[in-house]
Structures are given as structure tokens and as C-alpha cells.
Batch of 3 targets.
Target 1
Amino acid sequence: MHITLVGISHKTAPVAVRERFAFAADELPEALPKFGGAAVLVSTCNRTEVYMIAHHAITPGPVIAVLRDLKSDVEAPDDVFYHKTGLDAARHLFRVSAGIESMVLGESEILGQVRSAFSAATAANTHNAVLSQLFHTAIRVGRKARSETGIGRHAVSISSTATKLAERTLGDLPSRSVLVVSAGEAGKLTARSLAERGVTKLLVTSRTPARAKELANDLGGRPVPFNKLGATMANSDIVITSSAAPDFLIGQAEVQEATANRNGRPLLLIDIAVPRDVDPAVRGVFNVELYDMDDLQALVEQGRSARKQEVANVERIVEEGIDRFRTWVRDRGVVPTVAELRERADSARRAELEKTFQRLGDLTEKQRRSIEAMSSALVKKLLHELIVRLKSDDGERYVVPIRELFSLDEEQDQDAHPDD
């Protein structure tokens, strides 16, 4: 079985490119079968990755073509995509799950996103035993990294980075009016972070009114209708957006209108959505500052030292996961062959014993047991080297030759005709 990964992330492409390949949760049921086999699609704010398992090697071209087709033939150079195979692909997934491939080193949200991605593949029936083992191992690695190292304790989330950015730009937050657009996970975390920094005038809007109301009530804020977005923005100091909308929610015209009568009061827009919620052209509006995920990434890079000290510990956990997964894959192919080889040899031994006992006539029970023990020991000794080779680290390469040599894949009728 071949493991293949094709992906795009914050390490290979700016948000303007990778947002074009972002998939919302409701897109996955239709998208996953398009890859034509066992596949999991992991799509987050900072990455879109396809993990596939097949009996043959998969080149990146066809996978990239499917991604482009699913996103209406989006143009993007091939070099923004990366391609990994085998244990390199597995290792990358384990690092992603552990949070050390994230923009924010050690962030915790990715573990749930990896779990959700595999759940979507299970629901779409695009998984198999190897893919299941791969992702369950990745999830265990992620949990262990957070429970046995300090990578999570030192993590700085995108939401907290956005809050610090707001504080640095506008100063004292409690006196500011903050509008959170969307009540998705990123919006919830950002709103909670703002509330913890003393913001009391917190407004929440969403295209799903019930979600906005629920979050606003939870944080002591106030929900506002989504169709009042422009007017609410005009009275806000900070707007933080994190929806899953496929197109811009806030354009240049809306921002110009919202800032027309603010008496010089600045407006800060922090767009942590992928795809982006705010048209980049907004940067041209006077007295408006706009930050997106690429800007936040630069800020995150400034505070990585404490978390970097934990990376070596996480890497050890990742390699332990690789060892477990390698052993499972090896045993998956080898164990049935070992069992069949032993059964074939034991079947021949029993048939020959029966013929031997018939020829020898009357034997005592002790004599019969001695002959049987000798035959069992002889078979075990003859098979010993074969089984040692099969169970070695490169044992898989012996499976096919041994199965062919001993005709393990052919129907045998020796038991039915022991005298042939």
C-alpha cells in the first residue's frame, strides 16, 4: 500500500493563494469521492492537504487537478503544492496533529480539525484500514504531545495574537467597541479572548442568528442582525471576521460608507478567515487598518522561542508514532503470511505423521508423542529463518516470493488427497 500526501500551506503560499483551495465542512461529502479512492481532506485556515492510500504510487499531478476542478479551475502554480509519500507523509501528518507544523507553534485547534477530517472521510466512505490506522495514530500522537510536553502550554493562538494586535494598535480595549463577524470556532475564541482582556461592549453577528445569539449570551455581549453589518461596523472600533464565506463579506464601498462620519476615529479590521472575509482593497481607505492571516503569521513568528524548546520532545513522540505505524503496516502484510506458512507446514506434517503411524503399526502412546514432538520441532526449525526474515524491518519484500514459493495463494488439495 502506498501513502501519498499532496498539500498547500502557509509555508508554501500566501493567504491569497491558499484561500482558493479552502474547503468548508459541508463541501467534503461531495469533494472526497472525486479523488477516486481512499482519501482524507484536511482543510484549515492555514492548510489544505489530501492524504490518499492506494495499491500503486500516486503522482501529485492528478490530485492537484482534482483540487483545481473542485474549486472551478483555480489557477495556482504547481510549486505551491508539496508532495510526500510513505513514512514521510505519515510523519508530516503526525507533526501537523501535534501542532508543530502550524503557523502558531503548538496550537490546539488542529487536533480537532484532523479528527473532524477523518470523521468526514468515514461518513463519505472514503477510508480504509490503513488510512484509519494512520489517522488514529496521528490523533494519539497529538494527544500525547499535549499531555506529556509543554508545547500546548507555551502556545499562542491566532485569537490571542489578534487580541494583542488590537491592543497594540488602539490601546486600552475596555473602552472600545468590538464587532465579531461570525460565530464559528475562530470567532468564538477571539471573542472570548477579547472578553478576558476587559472588553465590555462586544457585538456578535453571523449569517446564522441563533449562533450569534448563543455566543453573545455566553460572553455577555449583544447579538446584532447580519443585515445591519454596515451600520454596526460604523459604530465599532474593531471588527474581527472569521466566517467560512466563499466570497468577501466586507468590501471597499462598505468600509468607506462605515467610516464616513467617524470624526477621524480609526477602524481596525482583523481578518482571520480563510478564504478572506475582507477585500484587500480596503487597505486603501483612509484611517482604516486591515490585517489578515499573513500579517498575523509575521507577529506569531516573533514569540516562538519558549515553544521551540519543546519541539524536540514532541519530535520524539512523533517518531514513536512512526515506529508504531511502521510496525502495524509491516505486520499487516506479514502476519497473515506467517500464519498461512505455519498452517501449510503443519498440515503437511500431520498428513505425513498419519501415514507414518499407519506404516509402523502398533506404537505405544509415548512413542507416538515422541515422533510427533520430533516432527513439530523439525518443522519449527525449518521455518525459523523464513519467519525471522518476514518479521524483520524489511520483511515485506519477502512476502511475495515466499507466497509464490509455497503456493499460498493457490488452492491446495493435499488434505483431501493425502496419498498424492
Target 2
Amino acid sequence: MKWTLVRYRAKPDQADENQRLSAVVFDELKEKAPAGLRYAVFRLPDDTFVHIAMSEEGAPALSSFESFRAFQKDVRERCAEPPQPAEPAIVGNYGMLA
């Protein structure tokens, strides 16, 4: 199982568009229901976005979805602080993660 966490801050005038593009990704994921893939996006009050993805071996990559590629296309132009990807280690979990 692989975990990925990406954090960035959107430009104030681009944060709503960033959220809209993220919502389109969730529409496609709900439609296609890919097995072995979990994904969440959080928006903080300062327009920081945190994406968390978990994929099991053999699961499709987020980048294989058209809506995610459209989201990524201009993400750097929407950012005040660029995306910072990391592979987090789970320290503790109580009912939050499967």
C-alpha cells in the first residue's frame, strides 16, 4: 500500500477554481469506482490544499484519469506555494483510515 500526501497553497483568486477542478476528479472517480484507490482533498481557511491518496498494488494511478490530468495541467500557475509531495508514515490511526 502506498500513501501520498501533497500540500500547496493556492493563489486567493485561484482557490475556488482549484476546488472546482478537484470536484471534477471526484465525479470521475465516483463514476468509474476504481478498486484499490482512495483519495481525499482538504481545503484550509488560508487556501492551502492537502491531497491524500492511498493506492494498493495494481490500482490505477490518479494520473490515469482524464480529470486528474486536467487538474494537474495548470496547477503551478494556480499556486502561491508550489505542491510539496511526500510519502507519509502513519504514526497512529483510530477509525480514520481503513
Target 3
Amino acid sequence: MIDVHTHTPRGCAIELRAVQTPSEAEGFCSVGLHPWRVGKLSDQQIAEELEMVAKAESAAVGECGIDALRGGSGERQREVFAAQVEIAKQRGLPLIIHSVRSFEECMAVLRGHDLAGVVFHSWVGSDEQAAKAINRGYTLSVGPRSLASSRTAESLRTIADEALLVETDDSDITIETIYEQLAELRGTTTDQLRATIYRNFTRIWPSGWNAPSCCSEPRN
């Protein structure tokens, strides 16, 4: 199984570990300047952290993005997000996005950038927003918050297979449970969903990761 965004790795899936301090980047991880931290840092500190993100040994940039409810000035968040989009572009790395009531703002920053992959983590949004993201080739990662939103859960029934990933984020829910709940929602089996998610994952990360020994490729 794949867990494309986790703060608490458990070792029984291919896990992309979310790291918020660049100095802690090690192994298969994503590292970025989270929007919640933007309002807590000086301009100098932000510049220093962005430089570390640009040099970190990571498999993706993020999570980064815009949060309309937390993190200080929206304009400052947009500037920091745009800087990390540029880092991802220059390094040829996928981008893991944190978007809270800021979908259109994030989409505007992303416009015109050809990236290795764009993943909206912990996706919560409308059918219309999902369609806009998918039309650009972006991927929606489903986690506990996604499934807890009735509006989002309903849209997840029909979202194209190639647009889906799954995650545990910072919850105590296991990745197995996420697979089971999403498979039931979509009227498929967990084995079929595993194959779908695995294909999507390897499209974005075709190399440069190591699967734990307890993992195996899904049956087709």
C-alpha cells in the first residue's frame, strides 16, 4: 500500500514522510515551509529555510501552500508558496500542497508551471474544484479529513482513477482503513484500489524510493 503523506510512519506501506524542518530530511520524504509557520518567521528566517528546502535531500517539496484560516498574511503565504513552486520546478520534484479555503489562489500560483507532479494533500473540495485540478493533471490525495467531509466523499465516488492517491496525514487511522473506506465508497475492492494507487504513485515517483520489506506490488 501507499501512504503519500504521513507524519507518523508505521513501516507497513510505502510511506512519504512529511518533514517540516529541512535539517531532518532523510530517506523518502517531502520537505517544505508549511504555511502555518510563515507568520511565525522573519523574512530572513524564511529566506534561510527556503534555501535549505532547495538543498534538502527529499523526494518532494512540501507540504506548502496557502491556508486562509491560519499562518498570517495571505500575501506573504502566496509569496512563500510561489517560491517553493519554483524550487520544485527547478529540482524536477513533485509538489505536496496544503490548501485550506485557498484553492483558486493555489491554482493561480501554479498556473504556467510544468511540474513533475502536483498533489493536493488531504483533499477537501467540490466537484467543480476537483475537475479543475484533474484537468491540469494534478492528483488528489484522500485522507481522514477527505472522507469526513460529506461533500468531498460524494465527489470521490466518481473521480477518475488516475487522479487518486491516499494518505494518513497526522491521524491515528491506519492506511489500511483509508483504503477500505475509499474502496467501499467507490464500489471497488481494496486489491483493485491498491493497483490503481500504485500505478498513480509510480507515475509521479518512477524511481528514487525504497519499499519496506513488508510491502509488495499489488496484483493487477
